[in-house]
């Protein structure tokens, strides 16, 4: 099967009109790709990549899924130029394709980003990042979310390969998404920023990222959900970058503690939870730097240890009403006799109907 003739025969079967034939041919292709001995020539690599792109957009979802599965061994078998072409094609489909195309191509692109060798990092950064950033700023929510998810994986693996100008562009686009009206977009933007922060230059981390968060949190009339988002971003940066945020904890910890105060967190259980999670991340990742705030952090933790967001001030009145209702039910039960029970009529038919 390693010969070019055998590969050509196999790829020809992937174009069969019968979806079952296409599925079996794709399955055989996956089996060959998984073999260490399988090493196609340059023309075979090109044709194989072209066929897989067609199969990823196949009408059969089973064929699509199997074609995506083939991408895992493929990225380790073919030259970088073909990986480049495939990623560009998949990225374009995510941005401009139909809903069905977008979903499966996003999965394929994500698979390639996760599985590709580190030696191809330059390709991923140079070719895919601009397209993903375009999608992040798209007006279509579905496109935005798919691009944010792929970008998160890309930055987690290859953020250190970004040039400073590219990092700045990424950060600007992602920071803008923290103010999105959609919670899903904000959540994925936080994940991307956390991955990016681990590789940002110090001046960009301290000034453009943490500094901007301070500015936004200090904005008068800031919506509670956005305030929570910025606090969650600080927690994510701490979990990802660890010690790098330690230099800023002298300002960051008091900021988070202030958000726990009643002035900001009254009747906002989510804000309290976000603050406590942030403090937990600071203590876990920067124990030395947070030492000066141990007392205040401990006080905040103890204060909310017994906090119950379901507790209501009029709980005693509600309990009294519940007791009164139970008393009434008991009185009704006392006036009830077996003579009033007619349930037996449905359960047991008359004798004259038995038999």
In a nutshell, what does this entry contain?
With 355 residues, the chain is mostly helical. Helix content is 72%, strand content 0%. Keywords: Repeat, Ubl conjugation pathway.
What does this structure look like?
With 355 residues, this protein is mainly alpha-helical. The chain has a domain at 201-307. Helix content is 72%, strand content 0%. The protein has 18 helices and no strands. Helix 1 runs antiparallel to helix 2 (19-33) and helix 6 (99-115) runs parallel beside helix 8. It is elongated, with a radius of gyration of 30 Å. The model is unreliable at 312-317 and 336-355 (pLDDT under 50).
Q: What's the helix count?
A: 18
N/C terminus separation: 76 Å
Q: Sketch the topology as an H/E string, one letter per element.
A: HHHHHHHHHHHHHHHHHH
Largest sheet: none
Which whole number gives the mean pLDDT?
A: 84
Radius of gyration, whole Å: 30 Å
Poorly predicted parts:
312-317, 336-355
| Helix percentage range | over 70%
**Could you give the count of β-strands?**
0
* Overall shape: elongated
Strand content: under 5%
Structural class by secondary-structure content? mainly alpha
């Amino acid at each position: 099967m390693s010969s070019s003739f055998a590969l050509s025969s196999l790829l020809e079967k992937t174009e069969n009109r019968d979806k079952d034939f296409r599925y079996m041919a794709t399955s055989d292709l996956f089996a060959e790709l998984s073999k260490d001995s399988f090493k196609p020539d340059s023309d075979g690599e090109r044709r194989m990549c072209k066929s897989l792109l067609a199969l990823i957009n196949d009408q059969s979802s089973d064929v699509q899924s199997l074609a995506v599965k083939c991408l895992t061994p493929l990225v380790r078998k073919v030259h970088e130029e073909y990986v480049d072409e495939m990623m560009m094609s998949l990225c374009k489909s995510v941005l401009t394709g139909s809903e069905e195309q977008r979903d499966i191509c996003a999965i394929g692109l994500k698979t390639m980003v996760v599985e590709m060798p580190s030696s191809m990092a330059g390709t991923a950064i140079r070719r895919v990042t601009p397209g993903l950033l375009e999608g992040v700023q798209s007006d279509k929510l579905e496109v935005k979310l798919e691009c944010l998810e792929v970008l998160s994986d890309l930055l987690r693996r290859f953020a250190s390969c970004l040039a400073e100008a590219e990092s700045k562009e990424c950060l600007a686009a992602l920071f803008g998404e923290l103010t999105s009206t959609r919670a899903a977009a904000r959540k994925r933007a936080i994940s991307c920023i956390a991955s990016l922060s681990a590789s940002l230059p110090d001046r960009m981390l301290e000034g453009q990222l943490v500094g901007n968060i301070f500015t936004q949190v200090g904005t008068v009339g800031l919506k509670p959900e956005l305030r929570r988002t910025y606090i969650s971003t600080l927690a994510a940066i701490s979990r990802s970058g660890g010690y790098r945020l330690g230099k800023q904890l002298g300002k960051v910890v008091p900021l988070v503690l202030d958000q726990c105060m009643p002035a900001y967190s009254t009747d906002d259980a989510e804000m309290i939870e976000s603050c406590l999670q942030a403090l937990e991340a600071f203590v876990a990742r920067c124990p030395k730097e947070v030492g000066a705030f141990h007392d205040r952090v401990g006080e905040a933790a103890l204060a909310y240890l017994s906090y119950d967001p379901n507790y209501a001030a009029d709980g005693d009145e509600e309990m009294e009403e519940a007791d009164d209702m139970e008393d009434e039910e008991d009185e009704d039960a006392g006036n009830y006799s077996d003579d009033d029970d007619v349930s037996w009529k449905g359960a047991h038919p008359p004798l004259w109907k038995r038999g």
